[in-house]
Structures are given as structure tokens and as C-alpha cells.
Automatic annotation (TrEMBL):
Biased composition (Basic and acidic residues): 1-12
Residue ranges of the TM segments: none
Residue ranges, annotated region (Disordered): 1-23
HTH arsR-type domain: residues covered: 18-113
Short name of one Pfam family: HTH_20
Signal peptide per UniProt: none
CDD domains, alphabetized: HTH_ARSR
Protein species of origin: Luteimonas soli
Matches recorded under SMART domains: HTH_ARSR
Protein name in UniProt: ArsR/SmtB family transcription factor
Domain of life where this protein originates: Bacteria
Length: 125
């Protein structure tokens, strides 16, 4: 095995290891974002402003209680965070969760690129 092949294999093993460590956390975030209502709530928080349940529920047919349940799922997944201000809870996007997804997707994308490169090399041989 050439030095380049050994180096490439070591990179693949390292990427698989990083991917498998991050997969459980990414799965929780993807599951939370997999619901259209929760994804819309994240979109409303995308400007990084803090908003109350009332503000987030404006223009929605959902009850305050339903929005609260969706926000709790997002908070449990680490996508949003809340803080109390008087009698209200204010919610804000946690950008670290989204950044973590970007890194995870880059790892998976890199694995697919490597697999396609290996397939191409195999077919060309």
C-alpha cells in the first residue's frame, strides 16, 4: 500500500470516528427540525432576536400550548434556549446547534466524496 493510500485510509477512519461520535447528537437535532412547525419556529428565530411564545405564535393557527410544546422539543434538542423575563419566557436560537449540524453534514459529505472517488478509481481500472 502506498503512502498516499495509507494516508487516505487514515483520513477515512478518522472521519468515520468523528462522524460516529457526532451522529447521536445530530440525530436529535434533525428529529427536532423534522417537524414543519418547529422548522418554522426556528426560521422566526433566525434573526437571533428573543421572542415570546405570543410573538412566535402570531399568524399561526396553533394554540399557545401547542407552540410551547414545540419549543420544548427544540430546547431539549439544544436548538433554542429560553430565559424568563417576568412572567414570560423568551426564546432565542442557539447557533451552536446549527453550526454542529453544518460540521456533521460536512463530515458525511466528505465520506460520500471519498466513496465516489474510490468508485471512480475502481471503474477506471
Amino acid at each position: 500500500m502506498s503512502s498516499d493510500a495509507r494516508s487516505s485510509e487514515a483520513r477515512r477512519r478518522s472521519a468515520r470516528s468523528r462522524w460516529s461520535r457526532r451522529a447521536p447528537g445530530a440525530a436529535v437535532v434533525f428529529a427536532a427540525l423534522g417537524d414543519p412547525t418547529r422548522l418554522a419556529l426556528v426560521g422566526k428565530l433566525g434573526d437571533r432576536a428573543q421572542r415570546s411564545i405570543t410573538e412566535l405564535g402570531r399568524d399561526s393557527a396553533l394554540s399557545r400550548q401547542a407552540i410551547s410544546k414545540h419549543l420544548r422539543v427544540l430546547e431539549d434538542a439544544g436548538v433554542v434556549r429560553s430565559r424568563r423575563e417576568g412572567r414570560e419566557s423568551l426564546f432565542a436560537l442557539n447557533p451552536k446547534a446549527i453550526t454542529g449540524l453544518q460540521e456533521y453534514l460536512a463530515l458525511v459529505s466528505g465520506q460520500w466524496d471519498d466513496a465516489l472517488d474510490r468508485l471512480k478509481a475502481f471503474v477506471e481500472r
